[in-house]
Design goal:
Layout lengths: L1 H9 L1 H11 L15 H4 L5 H12 L7 H8 L3 H12 L3 H19 L4 H7 L5 H5 L1
Helix pairs in contact: 1-2, 4-5
Length: 132
C-alpha cells in the first residue's frame, strides 16, 4: 500500500528506489551491487541504453569517458544523449554522476571509511572534487 502511494505521488522510479533501499536479505560487502537491473527499475526496452548504464555501473571507481562508453553501444553520442533524455530524463553524464554520488552516499552512511577513501572509491580525484 505504501509503495502504491509513493508511486502515485512520485512516480514509478521513486517507488522502485524505495524498494531497492528496503531490500536487506543479507549484508552486502562494499563492492556488491545494490541496484536492481535497470530494466527491472523502469520500463526500458532500448538495449543500447541498458548497455550504457550497465557499463557505467560497472565502472564507478574509475569512470570511463563518455565517448568510450557510447562507442561500445554502437550508436553515436548524439543518439545516446537523445535516448537518455527520452528514457531517463537526463543526459548520460548526469546519470553517471548521479550513480557515483548515490554509491558515495551509501558508503557515507553505511561505512566508517574516511571521506577521501569514499571519494576515490566513487571516481572522484580528491575530497574537494567530491564535495563540489
Amino acid at each position: 500500500m505504501f509503495l502504491d502511494l509513493v508511486g502515485r505521488h512520485h512516480g514509478t522510479i521513486v517507488a522502485n528506489r524505495v524498494c531497492e533501499k528496503a531490500i536487506a536479505f543479507r549484508t552486502r560487502s562494499a563492492g556488491d551491487r545494490q541496484r536492481l537491473p535497470l530494466h527491472s527499475q523502469v520500463q526500458l526496452n532500448h538495449q543500447a541504453v541498458i548497455k550504457v548504464v550497465e557499463l557505467m555501473e560497472a565502472n564507478l571507481t574509475e569512470p570511463l569517458l563518455l565517448d568510450d562508453i557510447v562507442r561500445s553501444a554502437g550508436l553515436s553520442r548524439r543518439q545516446i544523449e537523445r535516448l537518455f533524455r527520452r528514457e531517463l530524463g537526463c543526459s548520460p553524464s548526469r546519470y553517471y554522476l548521479d550513480l557515483r554520488l548515490e554509491r558515495a552516499h551509501l558508503l557515507l552512511i553505511s561505512s566508517r571509511l574516511p571521506v577521501l577513501e569514499i571519494a576515490i572509491a566513487c571516481g572522484f580525484v580528491s575530497a574537494s572534487h567530491f564535495s563540489k
